[in-house]
UniProtKB/TrEMBL annotation:
Coiled coil (UniProt feature): none
Family the UniProt entry places it in: Belongs to the outer membrane factor (OMF) (TC 1.B.17) family.
Pfam families named in the record: OEP
CC annotations in GO: cell outer membrane; efflux pump complex
Organism domain of life: Bacteria
Location(s) in or outside the cell: Cell outer membrane
Gene3D superfamilies for this protein: Outer membrane efflux proteins (OEP)
Transmembrane in keyword set: yes
Keyword Transport annotated: yes
GO terms for MF: efflux transmembrane transporter activity; porin activity
Name of the protein this chain belongs to: TolC family protein
PANTHER family linked to this entry: OUTER MEMBRANE PROTEIN TOLC
Annotated keywords: Cell outer membrane, Membrane, Transmembrane, Transmembrane beta strand, Transport
Length: 482
């Protein structure tokens, strides 16, 4: 959190550069913290996915499992008798299982121990499986694990790039709000200067009217300019306050004042005009290559194509024969004592094939397959269109950045010329060598040139950070943004 301390009776402006604002926003804005939290969530989701393909050791059972009731028992003659029961049937099962991604099945090793207490007959029996190995294998069925091993790493890589993009988006948002405030401050400075100059020129004009050097109409025009300048100044102050609040909110900054007199009064921002335009070359082919290598959208293209292929295979395989092989081999025994379970245990085998064969579906199988095929074609077309749009964005941004770099230089030169011309016009008016109308034109040209220079800088820096966001590549330093 940005902590600002103020000493003295008045709040001193906090001087900030564009780079400092971007850094603060990346470090402590709410948006950046949300991106970090989302990335942590995605990381642990991926860790959970990886854990599903590793051996799982589990202990399950029922301890105790007590029953005291009457149960119906069918007699030899077909009648029913309700017999009292009072027993405890406890069971513990320890198993080690492993999924098989290539086949979609699972293999397990288990050990089981069971104790049965008959309280009515005062008898205790033991049953157990000292060792067993089993297999559960789907046959002719869709293998989701195989596809997850291809799509989930892409999804995780996509989330990593989305995190970097979120921070670059914060930088772009900070740049936009920085220049919103900077433009407002420039307009405020222009309004204050114009107000002061118009007051001075109006005073001079009143003296010149007494000397008969200007008309009363010119004096009234200057008086109107004074009123408009004061109105513009009030509006500029309000706009600057709103822009400052928006930037402060994005930066998530807070001020701590020393003394009760300053409580609740944050220090105003004094923004530095980033006139230094970075001169570096952006190769279009490199920009396209980096964009398709780094952007989450490019990774999402591959993931969506895989998912469409996966859905097609799922629709095709789930419409035919579905079967599952369950097999189990091990040792088992029973006895009156716990140790009897492990003395000369006997073989235990179990084999089962469960299957489902659709006989009459009234075209449902074909409808599902054709739907999946149509969705796959739609995904291919959508991804292809998205790729072309993506390429067009990169091309536009690269050419725009080069154009705006030149625009910054031209508007800066025009600003210097307009400021000099206004100074000359002001001196000529004082010497009665210039009309009020020509002076007003010089003022308008001066203000327009200053605003155009700031707006050109805003457009350039927004294009600069937009290109970083679209490619996740720092062309100035020549490396990927990590």
């Amino acid at each position: 959190m940005l902590v600002i301390a103020v000493t003295g009776g008045a709040a001193q402006p906090l001087k900030l550069t564009l780079g400092e604002v971007v850094t603060i926003a990346r470090d402590q804005s709410i948006a950046s913290k949300q991106a970090i939290t989302q990335q942590k969530t995605n990381y642990w989701k991926y860790r959970s996915f990886l854990a599903d393909f590793r051996p799982q050791l589990s202990l399950d059972g029922s301890l105790p499992s007590f029953t005291r009731s009457f149960v119906q028992v069918v007699q030899p003659d077909g009648t029913i008798a309700f017999q009292p029961v009072s027993n405890n049937n406890s069971l513990l099962n320890l198993s080690l299982s492993q999924n098989i991604p290539f086949t979609g099945g699972s293999i397990y090793v288990q050990q089981q121990f069971q104790r049965f207490d008959d309280f009515l007959n005062r008898r205790t029996l033991y049953n157990g499986i000292p060792f067993a190995i089993g297999l559960s294998q789907p046959l002719f069925r869709f293998n989701l694990m195989k596809w997850d091993r291809r799509t989930e790493p892409l999804r995780y890589a996509e989330s990593n790039q989305q995190y970097i993009e979120a921070l670059e988006q914060v930088a772009l948002d900070a740049t936009s709000l920085y220049f919103d405030l900077l433009v407002a401050q420039v307009n405020l400075q222009i309004a204050e200067t114009n107000r002061a100059n118009n007051d001075t020129l109006y005073t001079i004009a009143r003296h010149k009217l007494e000397l008969g050097k200007i008309s009363r109409n010119d004096l009234l025009q200057l008086q109107l300019s004074v009123l408009n300048a004061r109105k513009d100044l009030a509006s500029a102050r309000q706009t600057a306050e709103v822009a400052s609040l928006k930037l402060r909110t994005l930066m998530n900054s807070r001020e701590e004042e020393n003394g009760p007199a300053m409580a609740g009064r944050p220090r105003p921002f004094e923004l530095v005009i980033p006139t230094e335009v970075r001169d570096f070359t952006v190769d279009l082919q490199l920009a396209l290559k980096q964009a398709f290598s780094n952007r989450s959208d490019a990774i999402a293209f591959r993931r969506k194509l895989l998912e469409a292929e996966r859905d097609m295979e799922k629709a095709r395989k789930e419409n035919g024969l579905n079967a599952t092989l369950n097999a189990d081999f091990g040792l088992t025994n029973r006895g009156n004592r716990p140790g009897d379970v492990y003395v000369r245990p006997q073989d235990r085998q179990f084999v089962e094939i469960q299957f489902t064969v659709p006989v009459m579906t009234w075209g449902r199988a074909r409808a599902r397959t054709e739907t999946a095929r149509a969705n796959q074609e739609l995904t291919l077309q959508t991804v292809e269109q998205a790729k072309r749009t993506f390429e067009q964005q990169i091309y536009t941004q690269v050419t725009l950045l080069d154009m705006l770099r030149q625009q910054v230089k031209l508007t800066a030169e025009a600003d210097q010329i307009a400021q000099s011309r206004y100074q000359i016009a002001q001196e000529r008016f004082k010497l009665s060598d210039l009309t009020v109308t020509d002076l007003g034109i010089a003022i308008q040209d001066k203000d327009r040139a200053r605003r155009d220079a700031i707006l050109a800088l805003r457009d350039y820096w927004q294009a600069y950070y937009t290109l970083r966001l679209l490619t996740l590549y720092d062309f100035e330093a020549g490396h990927k943004i990590q």
